[in-house]
Amino acid sequence: MPARGKHRRPKSQRFTRSIAAAGTGGAALALPLIGATGAHAASADSVSQKTTAVSEKTVTENSAKAAAEQAGESATAKKASTRTYSVRHGDYLSKIAREQHVSGGWKRIYADNREAVGSDPSLIHPGLKLTLHGKAPSGGNKASDKTASSSKKAAPQKTETKAETTSTTQSADASGTGFTLPVEGATIGTGYKTPGGMWSSGYHTGVDFIVPTGTSLKAVGAGTVVTAGWGGAYGNQVVIQLADGHYAQYGHMSQLSVSAGQTVSEGQQIGLSGATGNVTGPHLHFEIRTGPDYGSDIDPLAYLRSKGVNV
Question: Is the pTM of this model over 0.85?
Fold first, then answer.
């Protein structure tokens, strides 16, 4: 037995120290676990940032693609709204603007085609190519603009021909000789051989029919156009050699519907009245000549009366 007064160290203390040591070791071992959690968190943040960057890049690319497509569509739409029109007999800018639905009217057509038309918007010739902007007439599209344009040309031409035939028949029935007045519903202004210093010959070489700009002018008889264009003081003019050898001259026109060398019938529209050249207001200056040039004039009203025309 152990000696009295001496005691063994309780085993419980050794056990406690072991637990403490184990506890300390456990704490030390736990530290790497905390570090690992942080590492995983950092890795997750990196993935999130990369995902966000990819998403932003995709959005940017999609936006750029959409913008490019929109620009392409706008360019296509603009191109589709641009058409070419060939001037026909009887056309004038306001008529073309109305029939072809041009936004901005004749002023827009003139502004877009000023170089081709020239300084006078009222003077356009058959065959002149005009650029038109705006919505095509109903049924027109980019692929069929040319066909539609041809079809639209054909229809009005037939209508005008019919109207001209009717007018010719009525005039022929009225005169009975195949001659008619150069313009209907007009008031006679300055008469033939009225004296005055404003005329180089010293007198008025024709007769003036007072009508507003845009009034239809007609061939007084069948014949061939020898002049169609600018005539100086006469402005835009047409001269027709009639079947009997005389010449009919029309001055101050706003629009020409015929060209030199063209054959015309009695009553056919040759253009529109106006106020071009040396004038004080809109009217038709009409002459009958024995030759194509100035100075060979005769009394135009006496001539028409000799052909059975009531004037």
Answer: no
